[in-house]
Design a protein that fits this description.
The complex is a heterotrimer of chains A (about 160), B (about 120) and C (about 525). With about 160 residues, chain A is mostly helical. Chain A is about 70% helix and about 0% strand. Chain A has one domain. Chain B is mainly alpha-helical. Chain C has a domain of about 210 residues. Chain C has a two-stranded antiparallel sheet with strand order 1-4. In chain C, strands 2-3 form a two-stranded antiparallel sheet. Classes of the chains: A mainly alpha (about 160), B mainly alpha (about 120), C mainly alpha (about 525).
Chain lengths: ~160, ~120, ~525
């Protein structure tokens, strides 16, 4: 894919970051509002898709470190599983952080309210973990699929040359 | 009667998707058919949990209401969507590989395994 | 508190941990160690779980909470959490599956050295293990669907693992298309049952099950989808392609994974529907699937020229025996007298055949893998005289071929005999078909043995050597299991198979373990 015009690239440079912020917002508020790790992660991964469309594949492949993405993916999954395993003193996936105070354990007041961000125990932790995993995983899917298309195009160009 | 309308849509989507899968010869259209059947299934689950006039099933946000829509089918649908994304991505990758090896998207020509 | 109560969760968590950490092991030696250790741990956990279930009855485990009951203001109690319910049949399937996965993993170690991306193979293999074990231990219908999809997605990747061969991609795509449709049919069935009963727990649904039209539609969807996934005949076309194109360690394991779908079929028809089924139609459908699978697939197998494809058709044909045995059991379920006369024997035969089949068909696929590893071809017209250079592989092949053909001292004979004598009570034609199938099976394996292992030494195979030691170890695991089942038939029937069949019949016990006897 070739880079698009200067206007598109500039707009992308400015606005693509808002996708990241919006995705991060969805991930962090996963336990309070519709959304969560997967949805937010998918929004963040559109960042890579934006870059691919605006700046073209060659530059994107220069920016993306596949090993790093793969490591982030594994880390996210391991945090998720670890959050499950730490609850095993009661049962697997037991919410051992809820209502204990601290970063994740605030107690929610009864009745109708707007929600307390740091109240959900391991659920928020798991949303973050899934978010990391999905960002890395979907970005890798985009990159790999693009690589597959590029191989295809290269081969066709070769055959045209002959 | 209008309450059953969503189920009619589910049936239509399902039928169109299955027709694409069974009768179309193009791999990409078959993949689209699979996605439509998936969409029909997800819509079916969502419709199952709907209650007329129900509010959002979050206790702290809903306020004083009598009825909520069922949250479980929504959770099921989310899971099914995630699985569907994985399946669709893998299916498209396989179609890309098939196109590279066979040079065509026609199912009638992708038949090296038989018998 | 006894740590053993967490065994059902560990059974899923350990393979998942293996899968998630696997991409970090790019180093070949570390990867091999990780693969072996985690898969061995899974097998040990499955064995401990089986022992615990044998000692204490049904094990119920609830995810993420102390108990699973929600008591409504009206006094009604509902299970709301995700529950794993492991009875003797689940534990039996998990044990059988994890032994096969262990053997396939050990066998695959040296196979992976010939390719790059081995750590991804390891990750997918663990995901497949986790999906299979999850399907076999869960007590929740939607969870069953999720694990079904985990196992399916992992197996698409593994079947297409030789991604530079067009045939492997084609086989994987075919399997994916069928299996995605099948999984969506399962999901619609789950949705229908949820709409009727407002529950996803199998025991809770079974407790209030009354057979109406929606339930019949759901059952039809379940039966069609799971019969497709386990490769029964009208819908078997993916099996020969997928099994013959996958790497050998995977073909060996896929047999067990498709048996997990068989487990789902039996679990739903016995434990969820069970006594609510007032017509024998479902039982007859299962029996007819069984007969068709047995006969048509074995006829297709006889004419095959490629070793793994031939074995794959036999896998379909042997699945027929299990469907026949358990179908006869389902037929007799509503009549206590018929159950004690022939139904229970048929169930034992069918269930015994599940573990026998997993072991000997796994071993056969592994021997096919070693033939390919050593000689580079699987074409029967080109093979010959391998017995001279590969004595151990030959012994393994002879034992497992004798087992699949049902020759007397080996384990296939016992389970087939049980199926014969009980299906005779329903209709003699069933027994005749089963016997004919058995003879054709023997014929086709004599053909393979004669043309691959016997005959004059071929010049192009003079350099062929026996396969590496780790592959032999993988095969020996299954060989030991076959010999154990062969020479301890009484022990196997009373300790292994009997409780499993009993658990499948005992629908009330399955419900009571979760719902309590009250209400």
């Amino acid at each position: 894919m070739n880079p698009l015009s200067l206007i598109v690239r500039t707009v992308c440079n400015v606005f693509a970051w808002f996708m990241v912020i919006f995705g991060a917002y969805i991930i962090v508020h996963g336990h309070l509002s519709p959304g969560g790790g997967f949805q937010g992660g998918a929004v963040v991964a559109t960042f890579i898709a934006f870059l691919l469309v605006a700046h073209g594949g060659k530059r994107l492949l220069g920016w993306v470190k596949e090993g790093l993405f793969s490591a982030v993916e594994s880390t996210g999954l391991l945090i998720f599983l670890g959050a499950g395993l730490f609850g095993i003193s009661t049962t697997f996936f037991y919410n051992f952080l809820a209502k204990k105070g601290g970063l994740f354990g605030s107690v929610v007041p009864l009745g109708s309210n707007t929600g307390v961000l740091n109240s959900s125990g391991t659920i928020a932790l798991m949303n973050l973990a899934v978010g990391l995993e999905v960002v890395a995983g979907l970005s890798l899917i985009i990159v790999y699929m693009f690589k597959g298309i590029r191989l295809e195009l290269d081969r066709e160009e070769e055959s045209h040359d002959r | 009667m209008t309450g059953n309308l969503p189920f009619v849509v589910v049936g239509l989507l399902f039928a169109i998707g299955m027709a694409l899968i069974l009768f179309d010869k193009n791999l990409i259209k078959i993949a689209i058919g699979v996605s439509m059947v998936e969409a029909a299934t997800n819509l079916f689950l969502i419709v199952l949990g709907y209650r007329t006039g129900g509010s959002i099933p979050v206790y702290t946000l809903a306020g004083e209401v009598k009825r909520m829509v069922l949250p479980t089918p929504q959770a099921l649908t989310l899971t099914a969507i995630v699985i569907g994304v994985a399946t669709t991505a893998l299916m498209l990758s396989l179609i890309m590989l098939l196109y590279r090896y066979y040079g065509t998207l026609d199912v009638r020509e992708i038949r090296r395994l038989r018998g | 508190m006894n740590w053993q109560i967490h065994l059902p969760a560990l059974l899923i968590a350990v393979p998942l941990l293996g899968a998630f950490a696997a991409p970090a092991f790019a180093n070949r030696r570390l990867r091999d160690v990780w693969f072996t250790v985690m898969i061995a741990a899974t097998t040990v956990i499955a064995f401990l779980l089986w022992r615990r279930v044998g000692a204490e009855g049904i094990v119920v485990y609830v995810m993420g909470g102390e108990n699973w009951h929600l008591t409504l203001p009206s006094g009604m109690r509902l299970p709301i959490r995700i529950i794993m319910e492991v009875d003797a049949f689940s534990a039996f399937m998990a044990l059988s599956g994890s032994i096969v996965s262990f053997a396939g993993a050990i066998f695959s170690l040296r196979f992976l050295d010939r390719t790059t991306g081995g750590e991804k193979f390891v990750a997918l293999y663990f995901l497949l293990t986790a999906g299979m074990l999850g399907m076999e231990t869960t007590g929740d219908l939607f969870n069953f669907f999720v694990f079904l999809e985990i196992a399916s997605v992992a197996s698409y990747g593994l079947i297409a693992f030789w991604r530079n061969t067009p045939e492997a991609i084609e086989a994987s795509f075919k399997y994916m298309l069928l299996s995605t449709i099948a999984a969506l049919m399962v999901l619609i069935g789950v949705g229908i049952l949820y709409g009727r009963y407002g529950a996803l727990n199998m025991a809770a649904i079974a407790k209030s099950m009354q057979l109406g039209l929606p339930e019949k539609v759901a059952l039809a969807l379940f039966v069609a989808a799971l019969a497709m996934k386990c490769g029964a005949v009208p819908l078997h076309m993916w099996v020969p392609d997928a099994y013959s194109q996958a790497p050998a360690g995977i073909s060996c394991f896929l047999v067990s994974v498709s048996q997990a779908s068989l487990y789902g079929l039996f679990r739903i028809s016995f434990s969820v529907y069970g006594r609510a089924l007032d017509t024998p139609a479902v039982a007859w459908i299962i029996i007819v699937f069984g007969i068709l699978s047995m006969f048509i697939a074995v006829v297709m197998a006889v004419i095959q020229k490629e070793v793994k494809r031939l074995m794959a058709y036999h896998a379909v044909s042997q699945t027929g025996y299990m469907l026949l045995g358990v179908g006869v059991g389902l037929l007799a379920l509503a009549h206590p007298q018929a159950m004690s006369e022939y139904g229970f024997t048929a169930m034992q035969g069918g269930i015994f055949h599940i573990i026998n089949h997993a072991m000997y068909k796994g071993l056969l696929f592994l021997t096919a893998g070693s033939i390919f590893y050593a000689s580079g071809t699987l074409d029967l017209n080109r093979l010959g005289g391998l017995a001279r250079n590969m004595p151990y592989t030959t012994v393994m092949f002879v034992v497992s071929a004798a087992a699949i053909a049902g020759l007397p001292p080996v384990n296939g004979f016992v389970s087939k005999l049980l199926v014969y004598e009980s299906s005779f009570a329903v209709h003699p034609i069933l027994t005749v078909m089963a016997l004919v199938t058995s003879i054709l099976t023997l014929a086709s394996f004599v053909k393979v043995f004669q043309s691959a292992f016997l005959g004059p030494a071929r010049a192009r195979f003079s350099e062929v050597r026996e396969v590496p030691r780790s592959m032999l170890v993988g095969m020996t695991v299954l060989l030991v299991a076959i010999l154990w089942l062969s020479f301890m038939p009484t022990w196997s029937l009373s300790r292994l198979v009997g409780p499993a069949a009993q658990a499948l019949v005992d629908q009330a016990g399955y419900i009571e373990a979760v719902m309590g006897s009250g209400l």
